[in-house]
Predict the structure.
Amino acid sequence: MFNLILFGPPGSGKGTQSERLISRYGLRHLSTGDLLRSEIAGQTPLGMAAKSFMDKGQLVPDEVVIEMISSALDNNPHAHGFLFDGFPRTTAQAEALDKLLSQKGTSISVVLALQVSEGELVKRLLNRGLTSGRSDDADETTIRARYGEYEKKTAAVAEYYKKYDKVVYIHGEGDVEEIFLSLSREIDLRDRA
Ligand code: B4P
């Protein structure tokens, strides 16, 4: 199995690049952001609880997202690999993911980390907010709060995987297609042609 984490701050291009990568490599896409938004759209109790955190630009509690990912892994027994998008976002989530994958006899193959400056992230998300209808993209205060959460809680996830020599940094500014090629090169190097 080939399991990839696409890592980076909010607005770094994880969702954008995931779409291209899953279509090229046939990986199963697991985006905790998408899963949470679909719970909100369905007005489930989980969705309503998550919304109160997301609207403020805060991370949703670990137990909630770990349970969602655990079910998604169980529901895809025949996948030949996963692309994790927006997960893990805390060290506790990373430890839980390692455990879940090891129970299935597999592990993370590589963490591709998109690097984008804070100014560019804010610009992109404000721009997306003009059409996305997403409350967490609507104003600069919430977008900066999301970046603050990333620095405080999520940046440490890259340090966690660095211990296992699994992190590759990719310049995430510029042409979407060129960034996709840089990501693809790293995957191909690991025998995923
Ligand atoms: P996510 O859905 O993961 O949202 P995101 O990080 O903002 O999106 P992404 O990074 O995928 O967006 P993209 O760059 O592709 O999370 C939303 C919220 O859900 C979180 O704040 C949190 O509350 C909660 N959550 C999710 N997962 C969680 C977890 N594991 N634990 C706890 N809470 C969790 O796109 C951004 C914009 O940039 C787009 O408009 C795109 O078109 C543009 N763009 C992309 N690449 C570009 C490029 N190269 N140049 C110019 N623009 C570009």
In short: The first helix runs from residue 14 to 25. The mean pLDDT is 96.
